[in-house]
Each structure stands twice: as structure tokens, then as C-alpha cells.
Amino acid sequence: MSWIEAIVLGLVQGLTEFLPVSSSAHLRITSAIFFDRDAGASFTAVTQLGTEAAVLVYFAKDIWRITRIWVVGIWDRSVRGSLDYRMGWYVIVGSIPIGVFGLVFADQIRTAARNLWLVATVLIVFAFVLAFAEYWGRQTRTIKDFTMRDGVVMGLAQAAALVPGVSRSGGTLTAGLFLNLTREAAARYSFLLAIPAVVMSGLFSIPDVFDNSGDGSIPTVAQMIVATLIAFAVGYVSIAWLLRYVAHHTLYAFVLYRVALGSLVLALLITGTITAT
Description:
Layout: H1 3-16, H2 23-35, H3 41-58, H4 60-75, H5 83-104, H6 106-110, H7 116-136, H8 148-160, H9 168-178, H10 183-209, H11 221-248, H12 252-270
Helix pairs in contact: 1-2, 1-11, 3-10, 3-11, 4-5, 5-8, 5-10, 7-9, 7-12, 8-9, 8-10, 9-10, 10-11
């Protein structure tokens, strides 16, 4: 892997991780168009450690409060009715689906799921699902109204994002809107829900990203560190921007972008400009 490739992919990861446009799809497409190869699922997973570190820093107070109350609540029943205690359980239970599916379909996620025909199609199809959720959702429920059912449904939606093109944030936002949550409430839970799955995936993928028999181009340790740090810095800014944006705007702009990007990739595949694998 060249330094330019590592830097560009770090920027792409940071810019797209929290937007409902699929960072894994963008890394796959960017690699194919500009570098004529696939950086690999392991590279994606490790750079996501940078963006998740941004979540940990940005939501540090919330994460500490939820964790503390959840631990206290294991012994003290008086705090079990609080939102923070319940949110701790919502994140734990909501993380189970992606952990199970990630283990069961690990080989397919690293190979067949990265086919650009599939990625482009999924970008377009789920754009319309997101559009329908934006149109149909009443957005009458805030984070205070969150229930275990919401956590499970959004956890299943996060698991669908194991396929590049679905988008983890897009899937959870879509599910949240269908559950009549506000965009901001769905986004906040989406940030918290991602922490266990993405951190574990990234840590387990560190050995694979430097494996010559792996699924992508091989970065040096220095390149991997720089790409992850870039993803952290850009991702931190993206969090603040997205929370402000969803509080005052619809998600239709992302719908149009997904359709346009998916259509572009399909056109490049049809003309033979890029290859699907």
C-alpha cells in the first residue's frame, strides 16, 4: 500500500463512517477507482477504530455515566428504572446480532459481499428504504421513550450493515425512523450501539490487515496508524456535524447521493472501467 492510498482511505473512512452512505462501500469503491485494488475488509475494520475512538471522546461523559449507572444497577435496584441503566442493557443486547452474524458469515463478508455489483445495488436499494423511512416515520419519540424493542430492532439493522453498501448508521437511522424515533434520538443510540461491535471487530482484524495471505493490499504499521489517526480526527468533526444536521434536516440528500453513487459504480462496471472483484 502506498502512503497516498493510506491517507486517502483514512480521510474517506473519517468522512463517511457516521453518514448514512456506508463507509465500507466508500472504501471499497475508492480503492477500485483510484488504486485498482481492494484495500480489504480488515483495513476497513481497523481504521474504524479511529472513528470509534472519536465516538468515545465525543460522548465520553455520556458513556461514563451510562457505564457507571449500569454497574451500580447490578447491585442497587433503586437505579434500575433510570434511562442510563436501561441504555446500558439496550447497547449490550443490541450488539448481539452483529456479533453473531459477523462470526457466522465472516468469510462471505471478506469475499463475496465486497463484489462491486452487490455494493452498488445495495447502495441504491437501501437508499429507497431510507427514503421511505424518512417519509413514513412520525418522529414523535425521543431518547427518553427508548425501549428494549427499539434496541433489538436497531441492533438487527446494524447487523445488516455487514454488507458494504447498507451503512451501519444508515441502517440504524432507518430502523429508528420506522420506530417513530426522532432522527437525533436514533443517531445518538446508533453512535453508542456501534462501540462494542466496531471496537471488537477492529481489534480482531489487526493481525489480518498485515497478513500477506489476507483479503487486501498490505499497509505498513506506520501507514495503518496514520490512516487510523486521520479517521479519528475527521470522524470527530463528522459526529458534531451530523448531530446538528439531523436535528434540522431530512435525510433525502443522502438518499440522492446513494442513488447517484450506486448508479455511477454500475456504469463503470458495465463499461468495464473497473472490475467487480
